[in-house]
Amino acid sequence: xxxxxxxxxxxxxxxxxxxxxxxxxxxxxxxxxxxxxxxxxxxxxxxxxxxxxxxxxxxxxxxxxxxxxxxxxxxxxxxxxxxxxxxxxxxxxxxxxxxxxxxxxxxxxxxxxxxxxxxxxxxxxxxxxxxxxxxxxxxxxxxxxxxxxxxxxxxxxxxxxxxxxxxxxxxxxxxxxxxxxxxxxxxxxxxxxxxxxxxxxxxxxxxxxxxxxxxxxxxxxxxxxxxxxxxxxxxxxxxxxxxxxxxxxxxxxxxxxxxxxxxxxxxxxxxxxxxxxxxxxxxxxxxxxxxxxxxxxxxxxxxxxxxxxxxxxxxxxxxxxxxxxxxxxxxxxxxxxxxxxxxxxxxxxxxxxxxxxx
Length: 358
Description:
It is built from ten helices and 14 strands. The protein has helices at 13-40, 45-60, 64-80, 126-129, 189-208, 211-245, 258-261, 269-273, 277-291, 335-349; strands at residues 2-9, 94-96, 101-104, 108-113, 116-123, 135-144, 147-155, 167-172, 176-180, 185-187, 249-253, 295-298, 323-325, 332-334.
């Protein structure tokens, strides 16, 4: 399995200046290549290289391999949207490959710049250090908030999957990020409260329309995204640990395309479209693969309307968002926990449901 690992660089002032100069020149060259791609209506890297290779090298002073990487970046951007001419931020990422970036042990990295190769120290945590031996493919040089980072692709072997002794059903939601069939609730109240606060702040800043307001808007958006990502990491880690500790697999609803299948009132649209269930599912799946925990995807139809006691299915079984009360047998309980129990039962009936890994 391929994972993304980000490590921080610790360049001295001269190295930082060389890296910034290289990034700015590289991205200016990308914009020049993209202009040609848009004019010639071609996203072919081979054709673009024939058209601009020598011109870009001479005009921007890039090395041979950086020129090739520049052409590839511009071609990919144009291929993504052929209706507009791509342009690149002066300090956008550079994709380095093995020809222009190499590791000197695990504490230093050699990076090609316009001023030659620079041997830059790397700040590593225990998590990153344990995975650097399996780095492969390209590494993206990033500049964020005055610091340099390398985003790496590492190959991590899957743990052998065990045969599950039952399933842990997990219901993903908006008010509660997740609920499992054991009765545990992972509340999303803090996250949703933060989102509501940011909505109010964004409305105030957008009404100002100033340059400083635009900078604050971007800062707020990134802060909210980081917080939601951290919540999903924490919840997914706990779910996988719970399943592995009890020798069970994890059963999830297959929610692909759910936003196209459901309708909500206008007042609820913002909440519905900020629901990051796909990210949480991705985190659960990759952490489960690392731990050897099987994952099964089951159909979501009627999981929140089915009574686990008598099997009666009715919309009226769920009188409110948070409560379940069967109109046939009177069975009642928390709606999210009962939905998780129905997901668990669906996995028992169809242990090799679409997406299962055993």
